[in-house]
């Protein structure tokens, strides 16, 4: 009987430790489907705690690692540690780590601009580069990069120009890498959420949240689990002929 990749592959999830986050929901989804999971987060303790919880609840192998995705040497080092660990070969990479930027354009400093691009764009580049060799060697690879509706419509939800520019860069990275990796059977896709009920936006008022939900044709924001389900499917065997795409999940707020 054919054994699906989820039974003998590891899914690497960046930004996986945050409470009520897309990363945590994604790591949980992978574990629920039988994937081994490597959780990478700047909050190393949170990553290790979640890994222990998922291993106990779902009976899978899981490990958590402290990682700042803007540090290319650290990314390479964590990739090497995972390769040398008892985890199965890496078969999927979900680049979820990201930070917002609600600052108006004329108030954006050089430091803020560099930081937003480093986390949201360069971090995805570093992890793709670090984990692709394992996928090529293992003969199975799925990369899912997290973009945003802000990249498609030019902000308009919460974050402004630096975030939109970085997430647009993620789309370019995704499409180019997808074209290059397609002959190897490795798929690379982007997920582009609209407003989501997560903690990334920080402290907002009940009134602003209600107004945001009312502006969406479906009348509500996405849940982290709904976005995670899309990431999981793009990592499956069933999605093996889908690559270079931007998968919108925005409740009809932006239709192109």
Give a brief rundown of this model.
The chain is α/β, with parallel strands linked by helices and 256 residues long. Helices cover 45% and strands 15% of the residues. Keywords: Oxidoreductase.
Q: Would you mind describing this structure in some detail?
A:
This protein has a single domain (5-249), classed as Rossmann fold (3-Layer(aba) Sandwich). A seven-stranded parallel sheet has the order 3-2-1-4-5-6-7, sandwiched between helices. It is 45% helix and 15% strand. The protein is built from eight helices and seven strands; from the N terminus they run E-H-E-H-E-H-E-H-E-H-H-E-H-H-E. The protein has helices spanning 22-32, 44-58, 72-84, 110-138, 149-153, 161-181, 206-214, 224-234; strands at residues 10-14, 36-41, 62-66, 90-95, 142-146, 187-193, 246-249. With 256 residues, the protein is α/β, with parallel strands linked by helices. Helix 1 (22-32) runs parallel beside helix 2 (44-58), helix 3 runs parallel beside helix 4 (110-138) and helix 4 (110-138) packs parallel to helix 6.
